[in-house]
Amino acid sequence: MLVLSNDTYLNSLLSKLLQDYLEQTNSSAPSQAVSASSNLEIIYVLLIIGLFGFFTVGVMLTNIRARRLENSRDPYNTYIATDIWHKKDREYFQAKLIENYKLCCVFENQLAVEQPSMQIPEARSS
């Protein structure tokens, strides 16, 4: 019986809340306030999107303008366009490789070298 009384109380509470909500939505004054605040929200969102678009277009135009100002006679572009530096780097690398090869030496252990004339002793299992 205790469950039935709680269930009845819950149903009456929910029905009262639903009626209050319906009364608030049916009245004309609050609907005008809601629509006015809705218009302000739309204006705010459009303002933010507009500012973001303005900023993005500004960055794009600045980048395009900077690229146009680059000239083919610019020393930086000339440095990158020429292959002279790549050849010099390759020659330097080859010289370093040859130098390191000349510095390299191999030590030979005479006792570890395989000698075919001698027989390697085998361990006998007993």
TrEMBL record:
GO terms for molecular function: delayed rectifier potassium channel activity; potassium channel regulator activity; transmembrane transporter binding; voltage-gated potassium channel activity involved in ventricular cardiac muscle cell action potential repolarization. Keywords: Cell membrane, Glycoprotein, Ion channel, Ion transport, Membrane, Phosphoprotein, Potassium, Potassium channel, Potassium transport, Transmembrane, Transmembrane helix, Transport, Voltage-gated channel. It is a single-pass type I membrane protein. The keyword Ion transport applies. GO terms for cellular component: apical plasma membrane; membrane raft; voltage-gated potassium channel complex. One of its GO terms (biological process) is regulation of heart rate by cardiac conduction. It is found in: Apical cell membrane; Cell membrane; Membrane raft. Pfam families: ISK_Channel. The chain crosses the membrane at residues 42-64. Belongs to the potassium channel KCNE family. Ancillary protein that functions as a regulatory subunit of the voltage-gated potassium (Kv) channel complex composed of pore-forming and potassium-conducting alpha subunits and of regulatory beta subunits. KCNE1 beta subunit modulates the gating kinetics and enhances stability of the channel complex. Alters the gating of the delayed rectifier Kv channel containing KCNB1 alpha subunit. Associates with KCNQ1/KVLQT1 alpha subunit to form the slowly activating delayed rectifier cardiac potassium (IKs) channel responsible for ventricular muscle action potential repolarization. This is Potassium voltage-gated channel subfamily E member 1.
